[in-house]
Design a protein that fits this description.
- This protein is of the alpha+beta class.
- 26% of the residues lie in helices and 39% in strands.
- It starts with a helix and ends with a helix.
Length: 371
């Protein structure tokens, strides 16, 4: 017990000791080296197509631990500034206290996960997500479960339920940043200018731990310098609560076509003692730094429904048209069925021609004989 108290006192003293100017400059130089290296390595990934599957789980006092399958599909081409995100995720609700109409619509949907806990509490999960496309010419939004598409001005489709992944941030984000969907440059800017560099240490395995602090939190980021400067683990701790861990993430990387890409990603958080949440994901890449079919960034590429319509709202006045236009073919004349009257008309006409022709032949022959 005495040893534990002494260790705690020594850690407090060391933590409170001022850092010398030389040590500060050394830490700053090491931080710049790590962040510059990570930026350069992440920028090697220029385009890709990836399918992400796994589980979104959470634990609550009422519902216990629940696991729901999720699926995401992402296409991106950084050089042409084209991005597509498709998400199929679920949000759980207790049915107690729901409006009867809402409960009936959710509970009666056979495609939605639902169940009852051991304590008899009913729950149902509502589908969230859809598809978002960003291009320099337009944005597209296709809500989950609907075939129709909205076309907006470029940059106008914001605040949707679709999660827009930035793979460059994986391994650098805690749960709060993960949920806020900040981009790679925003995160590096915070690491460089808004967070204090507390320490940079390398262990016997060659992994470097970069520790950054704010007034409220401390984040430890473990970086594998030998494998593409990849961040492989992050732990965010609460400085106001004895450095208790409140968010944790781990990521696995693999080299593909000249870039390091994430292949596994796990992130979790403790909202309160009794409420936790997280994702366990696997990423399967089919294209890395290879050309993508331009169709995947068009309305026809994000919905296969033959009757899907697109509402173009870029000019203020809504213009509605088909996503998949019907094929245009020349009209084929339809055969007209002859009726009884027309049939008799043709018979009489043919007989008149035959009789008239026969009479003309008889008359001509008779005159020739008389002469």
């Amino acid at each position: 017990m005495i040893r534990i108290i002494l260790c705690f006192v020594m850690s407090v003293i060391l933590f409170a000791m001022p850092i010398s100017a030389d040590e500060t400059e050394r830490l700053q130089a090491q931080r710049r080296f790590l962040l510059t290296g990570m930026r350069a390595e992440r920028e090697k990934l220029r385009s890709g197509q990836v399918v992400i599957t796994g589980e979104h789980w959470n634990t609550t006092p009422a519902l216990g631990k629940q696991r729901l399958a999720v699926r995401f599909e992402v296409y991106f081409d950084l050089d042409s500034r084209r991005y597509r995100y498709t998400q199929r995720d679920y949000v759980q609700y207790q049915t107690a206290g729901m409006e009867p109409q809402t409960k009936a619509s959710l509970w009666g949907n056979p495609d939605l996960p639902k169940g009852t806990t051991a304590d008899g509490i009913e729950w149902v999960a509502a589908l969230v997500g859809g598809t978002i496309v960003h291009t320099p010419e337009y944005d597209l939004h296709n809500p989950g479960g609907h075939p129709h598409v909205t076309r907006l001005a470029s940059g106008a489709a914001t605040g949707t339920a679709v999660r827009e992944w930035d793979f460059s941030t994986f391994g650098l984000v805690d749960w709060l940043v993960f949920e806020s969907r900040q981009g790679f440059e925003q995160i590096l800017d915070a690491f460089e200018t808004r967070l204090r560099c507390h320490s940079v240490e390398t262990n016997s395995s060659g992994l470097t731990c970069l520790t950054l602090q704010s007034d409220w939190t401390q984040s430890e980021i473990w970086i594998d310098e030998k494998q593409g400067m990849t961040p492989i683990r992050l732990s965010r701790r609460d400085r106001k609560d004895s450095l208790k861990e409140t968010s944790h993430s781990e990521i696995g990387w693999e080299a593909m076509h000249g870039a390091m890409v994430p292949v596994t990603f796990r992130i979790s958080t403790v909202h309160r003692e009794e409420y936790t949440e997280g994702y366990d994901l696997t990423l399967e890449w089919s294209h890395v730094n290879e050309p993508l079919d331009p169709k995947v960034f068009t309305p026809a590429g994000i919905t296969e429904s033959a009757g899907a319509m697109i509402a173009d709202m870029r000019l203020g006045q809504v213009v509605v048209e088909r996503v998949h236009p019907l094929p245009v073919s020349p009209a084929t004349p339809k055969p007209v069925a002859a009726n009884a009257r027309s049939q008799w008309g043709w018979i009489i006409l043919v007989n008149l021609v035959i009789v008239g022709g026969g009479f003309a032949w008889w008359y001509s022959r008779r005159r020739s004989q008389s002469t």
